[in-house]
Write a structure and sequence with these properties.
alpha/beta; 8-stranded mixed sheet; 7 helices; 30% helix; two-stranded antiparallel ribbon; 20% strand; Aminopeptidase; 243 residues
Amino acid sequence: MLYREVANFYNLYKGKKCIIGYTHQNRNLYAFHVGSDYGKQFIAVYAVHAREFITARLALKHIKEGVKKGGGWVIPLLNPDGVAICENGNPMWKANGRGVDINCNFDADWGTGSLNTRRRGRENCIGDYPFSECESAALSRFTLKIKPSFTLAFHTKGGEIYWEYGGCGDERGAEIISGFTGYIPKKIVGSAGGYKDWCIQKLGIPAYTIECGFDELTHPIERLRDVKECFGLLKYFTENYEK
């Protein structure tokens, strides 16, 4: 099971690490530090949506690759409860264990997305209020504590990079990611309440959602090599973004 894989990786990891919180089902939310403690720091988060669990294995690869410039925190598995649902016979499940879409639960025009619903289920439920979910609350607290220079959220799929919210954002970072991966920078409309949205609107920092894997793939992506264009991306981005 993926949660056990990440937990074992955490137990063996020799670098700085911590648990940023716990899910409703009492699973740990693990974070790993890579690179230097000095200079600007980032946060990279993966497996926000359950059926996009391949990004957790991408995160472990990114941790092993490390970064050469600056440093930051990698959170491989933000939604372990939802991933467990996927692994136990519901492979298209997107939400967390309470039927709430974590990426609709941040305080950025919460509840105004075109597909938002209050009905709990596999996707699109906004929750009872912003940060009602253990996972979004833990990530927001950790982000406020770290005060990152930028954030990256790895999702699947479509080969696109979302970098803008409410007329704000830093397109240059999306162009760096695009040059490395071949993905297309894009403004997305009709979406709200995401981690990227909150980072841009409320924290005023650049934030990027990266839809790993090209659109011809189908959910859930199970082979890591199907997102191979993202191998080395974290290392590359940190080396080039601050230039």
